[in-house]
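This protein record is not my work; I was only asked to verify it. Where you disagree with what is written, explain briefly why. This is what I was given:
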Amino acid sequence: MLVADNLVKTFVKNEKRGRKAEFNAVDGISIKVAEGEIVGVLGANGAGKTTLLRMLGGLMKPTSGEVTFLLDGEQLLDELKIKGQIGYLSGNTKLYGRLSTRELLSMIGSIHGLDNPEIEKRIDEISDVLNMGDFIDNRIEKLSTGQTQRASISRCLIHNPRMYIFDEPTLGLDIISSSAIIEFMKKEKKSGKGVVYSTHYMEEAEYLCDRIVMIDRGRIVKMGTLDELKTETGKENLREIFGSLIDSKEALYE
């Protein structure tokens, strides 16, 4: 289980005439993500989603607040062990273009301390799940957008983490690639993995997520299951709920 308690992240921005001002990109967010649960994070551009996910994944230190990782009911304190239980996907992640996906996974598996037989087994499993057999031995720089995204996701899986943090994994992908990734996430949930899933696609979130967290200007404006959100807002779908709660024209930062 991943537990975030009152997370705050403060940055400094430039204003007119060279003046600087502090602002909170994330401003007091608390959430829990259990194993076997997909929690969707929704917000307009600049709402603080990526900053929040970076803190949850241990890539960014909060200004205040705390992120706790519980494994089988016990808190992990070692930072490397925590990161070893998380698979983090960001749109900013760069892959080694001259490597094939198989070579990339072998390298990352070694970094995580897996032996060669285990690495080969995991690569075969991941290739099957993400349907990468046709391109796993091709150089990454030669892959299509959808293939590259599946290669990027595969590197998050090689060490078999207990928690995934995915920042817009289907952005810009075709329907076939998007469907493969979405169905993969459902399978991982059934196997007991926890997932934090940020997306701009409302229908995708409706289909996948057990709970939804909507944030605006660094704060949670509404959180709950889809049925709870429908009841509280009187709206019929997530797109209408989002539109009634979030004014995208006022999104300030990220």
In short: The two ends are 26 Å apart (CA to CA). The chain has a mean pLDDT of 89.
